[in-house]
Amino acid sequence: MKTACIPIYLLFAALFLVECKTSRPTTGNATPALRASIETENLLSCCDFGTKMPDGNPVWCEASAVLYDNGTVFIANDKDMPAGFSSVFTKPWKSLADSTVRPTPLLAEAFRTARKYEDFASNKDYVFLTTAFDRVKPGSTDWDGYNTVLYWKKGQEANPQVLAPERDAKNSVAFRQQLSTLLAQNRPAFPNGMPYFKIEGLAATDTLLLFGIREEGEKFDTFDYRVRVVAVSFFVEKTGTSERILLKNNWRIVTDFDPSTVAELPKPLALSSLEYDRTRNLFWLLTSIESNGQLDAYVWTVKPEDLLNNRPPTLLRDPEGRPVHFNHKAEDLTFPDAQRVLVIHDDDRAKTKVGTQIRQPNQAAYTVLKVNP
Fold it and tell me: Which of the following CATH numbers is that of domain 31-372: 2.60.40, 1.20.1530, 1.10.10, 2.115.10?
């Protein structure tokens, strides 16, 4: 039997290729190339059709925050609700689109005192919910409820607590000046702090809270759109049988990203959600645009070490390589299971369409993404 001989130059070439493939260093900031496609789009009801506010105007479901936890979907509306209802409510995941299954309102005083909810977050132990922090009235406490972060142990949503330095606080306005000062760093136009800013993102790890900033500037109608992330450490203080969360004094800006660097996307995009995905050890971001009647939004992912070191996120694309986007103002996302992402949309008062359905005032659109590893 003849033995095949391999020319020596081919042998060296093969060994060279194997060496390159096995020992080439990988870049530490490479985000896994996830792909996703739209699996479902539908509408959910915040209340019965025809529900009205005390002034006779219809209640608008402008759903701005969503969280999946153990078969239940928590939803927050960024508008006030009439008596007997709540801006924070739950629905079973399996009947999210079923208008005959009424939401269960969360009626604790803290839920009814805070105003303009923007984002849920959770880690393995706690659920957090933030408002926008987008307004305060000098010399008055009337608008302090717009500056609130609530939290509760998972399964104990009937007893939310207010995140604040002092016990028994009704809101978190005490943190406003720290945020204002931080956001004005290196901005000579604002020597006394950022006068106006808006939080639309919130994420939680075991030791960090991360706030996503969408707007900042001189006032509510004179601002710049942003994708900035502020991080602060927290710890749990236990006293007897009670415990509360306290923040450390290490506020810092960890991400300042400009989506306009991605030429194929519309402008101006700004942050509208920030979430931590424990399953994949990734942060997810939503950026959205609302301009001259145009509503659109895009999804990004980024590894924790990259987010915390101001490295850019990766745009989520579908299996054909196109950016995943929605013809809605996507406001928050959550993870019903290891393969799916639920995205809630706040289309303000636009009567957007989902398939052949036209959104009514008491409804909000949502999308379920199927993630391909």
Answer: 2.115.10
Residue 77 token pair: 């509306």
What is the C-alpha separation between 153 and 16, in angstroms, rounded? 55
Query: How crowded is residue 80: how many other Cβ atoms within 10 Å of its Cβ?
Result: 14
Q: Are 251 and 245 in contact (CB under 8 A)?
A: no
Give the pLDDT of residue 191.
95
Whether omega before 160 lies within 30 degrees of 0, making that bond cis, reads no
Supply the pLDDT for residue 292. Answer: 81
Q: CA end-to-end span of the chain, whole Å?
A: 48
pTM of the model: 0.90
Structure tokens belonging to residue 111: 């839920």
DSSP bridge partners of 242: 239
**Cα 256 from Cα 119, distance rounded (Å):** 19
Q: Give the Cα separation of 283 and 148 in Å (integer).
A: 23
Residues of the chain with pLDDT under 50: 1-31
pLDDT digits (tens, 9 = 90+) for 242-298: 899 999 999 999 999 999 999 999 999 999 999 999 999 999 999 999 988 789 999
Secondary structure letter of residue 286 according to DSSP? E
